[in-house]
Write a structure and sequence with these properties.
five-stranded mixed β-sheet; 12 helices; elongated; about 40% helix; D-Maltodextrin-Binding Protein, domain 2; 2 domains; signal; ModA/WtpA; single chain; alpha/beta; 11 strands
C-alpha cells in the first residue's frame, strides 16, 4: 500500500480544482473594507475558498509589494500608487482595470456641525474653532489625503488648514478620529461616511475641486499565475459585483 501512496496523492492533487490549491491574497485600500468583505462572502458562497484580505493605505500596500510581500491582487484607492507598482514591473499590466469611483466629503460627529455648502469662500479654519483639527489621510502618502489637499487648494483653504491637519495613516483612521470626537471635522470618502453611524456628512466637495477618484485593480506579477486570483479579479471588477459596490456607495465606471 505504501508503494502506491505517492501515486494516490498525485492523482488526488490533479483531481482537485486549481482554485482550491491557491486561495488568493488581496491587498486592498482601507476604504474598500466593507464592500470587499461582502464580496468575499459572495465569492465563498459560489464554492471558492476565502480570499486573504489585507487592508491599509494604498501607499503602504504598494511598498509592501515592492518589498516582495506575497500579494496576488492589488486594489488601490488611486491611480498614482498603481502606477508606482506598474513602473516597477510588479503587476500584470493587461489585467489593470478601474471599475469603481468615489466622492470626497466633509464629516463631523453626529449632531455637531450644521451642513455647509463647500465652495470657494468657505472658511474651514472658522469651522474648526480655536483649537480643532481637521482629520484626513496624510497627504504625503494616503490617496484620500492627496485628494483632500487638492480640494483645499482649489478652495484657497490649504495654507490656513495645513498646520491644523490631523494626519491619519489611512482614511479609516481619519474616520475614527471624528467618530471619537478627537477632531471636529474630517475629510473622507463618501463611502466611509456612509459606513459609520457616529458621523454625519456636512458637505461634499465639487467634482472639479480634485481629480476623479478612481480605484484601479490589478493582478500582481506573482498573482498572474494564480487562476483563482484571476477569476476573483474578474468577479469583483465585473457586472456581478456592481450591485454590491453601489450598495456601499461606490460609483461605477462609465
Amino acid at each position: 500500500m505504501r508503494r502506491w501512496l505517492p501515486l494516490l496523492l498525485l492523482l488526488l492533487l490533479l483531481a482537485t480544482p486549481a482554485w482550491a490549491q491557491a486561495s488568493p491574497t488581496v491587498f486592498a485600500a482601507a476604504s474598500l473594507t466593507d464592500a470587499l468583505r461582502a464580496l468575499s462572502e459572495a465569492w465563498q458562497a459560489r464554492g471558492h475558498p476565502a480570499p486573504r484580505l489585507s487592508f491599509a493605505a494604498s501607499s503602504a500596500l504598494a511598498r509592501q509589494i515592492e518589498q516582495g510581500a506575497p500579494a496576488d491582487l492589488f486594489l488601490s484607492a488611486d491611480e498614482p500608487w498603481m502606477d508606482y507598482v506598474a513602473e516597477r514591473g510588479l503587476i500584470e499590466t493587461a489585467s489593470r482595470v478601474s471599475p469603481i469611483g468615489n466622492a470626497l466629503v466633509v464629516i463631523a460627529p453626529r449632531g455637531g456641525q450644521a451642513p455647509v455648502t463647500i465652495a470657494r469662500g468657505v472658511d474651514f479654519a472658522a469651522m474648526l474653532g480655536a483649537r480643532g483639527r481637521l482629520a484626513t489621510g496624510d497627504p504625503a502618502h494616503v490617496p484620500a489625503g492627496r485628494y483632500a489637499q487638492a480640494a483645499l487648494e482649489w478652495l484657497g483653504q490649504w495654507d490656513a488648514v495645513m498646520p491644523r491637519l490631523a494626519r491619519a495613516e489611512n482614511v479609516r483612521a481619519a474616520l475614527l478620529l471624528v467618530e471619537r470626537g478627537e477632531a471636529p471635522l474630517g475629510i473622507v470618502y463618501g463611502t466611509d461616511a456612509a459606513a459609520s453611524t457616529a458621523v454625519q456628512v456636512v458637505g461634499a466637495f465639487p467634482a472639479e475641486s480634485h481629480t476623479p477618484i478612481t480605484y484601479p485593480f490589478a493582478l500582481t506579477r506573482g498573482g498572474a499565475a494564480n487562476a483563482e486570483a484571476r477569476a476573483l479579479l474578474g468577479f469583483i471588477a465585473g457586472p456581478e459585483s456592481a450591485a454590491v459596490w453601489q450598495r456601499h456607495g461606490f460609483s461605477l465606471a462609465r
